[in-house]
Amino acid sequence: MASASSTKPETTTTTEISTKDGNIFPQPPNTTRELLVKWKNMSYRKVAWVPSYWVSQVVAPAKMKSFWKKVQGPSEISDVVQPEWTQVEKVLDVVFDADYNGRGDNMDALDHIQSVFVKWRGLDYDQATWDEPDEPDSPHYATFKQAFKEWVAAQKIDIPARAKKGRSGPQPRPSNQAPFEELKEQPAYISGGTLKDYQMDGLNWLRYNHWKNVNSILADEMGLGKTIQMVAFVTTLFHELRAFPCLIVVPNSTLTNWVREFAKWSPDLRVVAYYGPQTSRTVVREYELFHRGTHDLKCHVVVTTYEMIVNPVDSIWFRKNSWECLVVDEGQRLKNENSMLFIKLNELVVENRVLLTGTPLQNNIRELFSLMNFLDPVKFSDVTELEKKYENLDKNAVEELHGLLKPFFLRRTKDEVLKDLPPKSEVIVPVGMSALQKEIYKGILARNHKLLQSITNRGGTASNRKASLHNILMELRKCLNHPYLIEGVEPRYLDTAELVHKSLIEAGGKLELLHNMLPKLKQNGHRVLIFSTMTRLLDILEDYLNGEHYNFVRLDGGTSSADRQARIDKFNAPGSDVFVFLLSTRAGGVGVNLATADTIIIYDVDFNPKADMQALSRAHRIGQKNKVLVLKFMTRNSAEERIVQIGKKKMILDHLIVERMEDDNLDPVDVESILKFGAKALFEEDSSTNEDVKYDDAALDALLDRSKIEHSHNENDNGDTKVSGFGFAKVW
Fold first, then answer.
1. How would you classify the pairing of strands 580-584 and 599-602?
2. Is the pLDDT of residue 456 over 70?
3. pLDDT of residue 198
4. How much is the pTM?
5. Residue 108 sits in the same domain as residue 218
6. Could you tell me the residue range of the domain that residue 93 belongs to?
7. What integer best gives the mean pLDDT of the chain?
8. Which of 634, 574, 623, 567 shows the shortest CA–CA distance to 598?
9. Phi-psi region for residue 73, left (φ > 0), alpha (ψ -120 to 50) or beta?
10. With contact defined as beta carbons under 8 Å apart, do 494 and 441 qualify?
């Protein structure tokens, strides 16, 4: 058994108690404290208050000691047991009454259930338990009945014969295949809302490519609803062609959202999420994925993560069936044809492949051709040869490349298709260093002077030079974000909490500016997303926000899928009082809808400007009702200013980008220029002069003013919006 972290106010009892293993303990004199206990293999519906003396007889002393250290004091059950943990989310298995003679595959069997194996809402599969069915007068009966109805439906799913183990590959289309028919209106079975016109175009484009047996890249700009279009496409495959199952491979951070979108837009499809700890995955395989005793799927869609695909054990299960459609979200993950993900996905037998990415061309030419090789390994068979052919992109080569790629690509931008989306303004905000930051920054450069000099003179191996440069740069970036990120800088002994908080704010130029901004933003009813590349910086911002008593939530790479979605829901809830959402740029920049915020602060820019673009698209997307202000903090005369300059250079390149953008591949020459930038001015600065960037009230009000934010639609002479090189044209 396991104890919940809760104790009950003192009471006195005189009865004996028997434990689940049959042991009976007598009542000791003067027993007054009780503990809330959750019994092993039993649900949270069965938790009970038990005298602490009896618990101590069956729980190891070390465990009891640890428990008492964590307990804060008396509390109620509702403080430690979430109400949703007692609600049925899924029925996994059923035992019927001994005298029931039916097959159990219809709703008539509902009244003959003896016990059910349940996945509880808000808990992983490995916490599923057997329990009694809810009675008709129970407040949970409706959700239990629905869960049983879905279980019954799963028993009747029979995947097409061509999808079962044994197919050798995609089958040729029949010669008498019916002509393609465009969907003029949204089908009734896509029921979660109304698709926008461009989303209907995207759906028809995906259907047309599937009809032609051509694989696709849906490359709409972030925030245009690629997930919804894909859900709609998979749904039409099932309803029009009875074509399934489909496998959808996504980042761990977006899996919950994918499942939710299917439930909203396509409730007729049975969707199984395969992820989580090994114990949970075992339960999913045994009760959710396959019909008992077979490898035949009993679902229409499986949503899983990259990690599951490359896991040597789990990858076996995905090869047990063939797939009508394989969807890879954030398809740029396949930029390396030698990666394990690329190899494992290529081992699957798949009829149709679709990649989703809002940044399809952020990589160098070779990486682009790797994506194309995954889609069409015949036409793009020799990646190295294609890379050489298009190494130098003149006008003719670009046009030729466009022609080669266009059948596979659909790309629309927000400016093209969302006329009603409120405009956004992006502002680079110069920030000065605090006196402490200047001292530390100079110290880092001075301390590494000889190393920098030898690196500049090309001393040592290239790999060592690169590692040394990156180490120095990381120290400088930590200093610029907040000097307390440097070990040994934060003062250990300050007299009062107020002095600690004041010191925290004044130590960093960016935090001091943020401190002056937030009250104005809150007063005017704005809600804020703050992105940083450093999770330790988010720790500092947490301390600051707690000190200011601002209500906030946080999401980073360590946030579980369940907590991630709960925090997003809390922030987006109608009337939410959460003012700030702290996010790590990489973890919070993908697959998150935070359109209820209208202010985005990029606390420190990413080496890859596309990562920052993904971040700001969390708010500037479908559903946004207000003008969006994006503020990118940049410390003046520092390495950070040079990073911004390099990012600008990358962003103005044409959409066939040939420079590497990943921070891992940043050119050592670029790193050198970043380290040197602003150093001369900083060391020559006269301490008697004060040329730092300062923002008074008037300057802050002007910076935060949204009245002049306007749309930036580009229109041609015919009044049409300017379309990308991979736009949409009907060809049927």
1. unpaired
2. no
3. 94
4. 0.78
5. no
6. 83-155
7. 83
8. 623
9. left
10. no
Q: Is residue 488 part of a domain?
A: yes
Strands, DSSP E only, in 110-200?
113-120, 129-131
Q: Is residue 170 part of a domain?
A: no
User: At 273, which helix (H) or strand (E)?
Assistant: strand 271-274
Residue 271 lies in a domain: yes
Q: Give the whole-angstrom CA distance, residue 226 versus residue 358.
A: 9
Number of domains the chain contains: 4
**For residue 376, which of 352, 341, 400 has the smallest C-alpha distance?**
352
Q: Is 453 a domain residue? A: yes
If asked whether residues 65 and 104 sit together in one domain, one would say: no
pLDDT band at 672 (very low <50, low <70, confident <90, very high): low
Q: Assign 328 a pLDDT band (cuts: 50, 70, 90).
A: very high
Measuring CA to CA, how many Å separate 343 from each of 306, 337, 370, 414? 12, 7, 12, 34
Give the CATH number for residue 131.
2.40.50
Q: Which of 103, 133, 155 is the last residue of a domain?
A: 155
Same domain for 205 and 353? yes
Same domain as 106, residue 66: no
Q: Are residues 480 and 595 in the same domain?
A: yes
Closest CA to 154 of 243, 93, 98: 93
What is the dihedral sign for C-alpha 638, 639, 641, 642? Answer: positive
Task: Answer yes or no: do 122 and 70 share one domain.
Answer: no
From CA 69, how far away is CA 52, in angstroms rounded? 15
Q: How confident is the model at residue 464 (pLDDT cuts 50, 70, 90)?
A: low
Residue 585 carries which DSSP code?
A: H
For residue 398, give the CATH number of its domain.
Answer: 3.40.50.10810
Show the tokens assigned to 247. Answer: 């496998």
Contact 383, 366 (CB under 8 A): yes
Per-residue confidence band for 107, with pLDDT thresholds at 50, 70 and 90: confident
30 Ramachandran zone, left/alpha/beta (phi>0; psi -120 to 50)? left
Inter-residue contact 25 to 53 (CB < 8 Å) = yes
pLDDT for 702 beyond 60: yes
What Cα–Cα distance (Å) separates residue 726 from each residue in 78, 332, 413, 543, 654?
A: 54, 17, 10, 46, 13
Residue type, 506: E
Q: Taking Cα atoms as reference points, which of 604, 434, 430, 432 lies closest to residue 507?
A: 434
pLDDT at 657: 32
Nearest-angstrom CA–CA distance, 183 and 278:
42
Residues 664, 609: Cα–Cα separation, whole Å: 14
Check which CATH number belongs to the domain holding 436 and give it: 3.40.50.300
- Whether the bond into 422 is cis, omega within 30 of 0: no
- Write out the E strands in 509-557: 528-532, 552-555
Q: 222 and 342 share a domain?
A: yes
Q: How many angstroms separate the CA atoms of 315 and 341, rounded?
A: 10
Judge residue 335's burial from the number of C-beta atoms within 10 Å of its C-beta, 0-12 exposed, 13-18 middle, 19 or more buried: buried
Q: Which residues have a Cβ under 8 Å from the Cβ of 389 and sit 6 or more positions away?
A: none
698 and 613 together in one domain: yes
Last residue of a domain, one of 80, 112, 128: 80
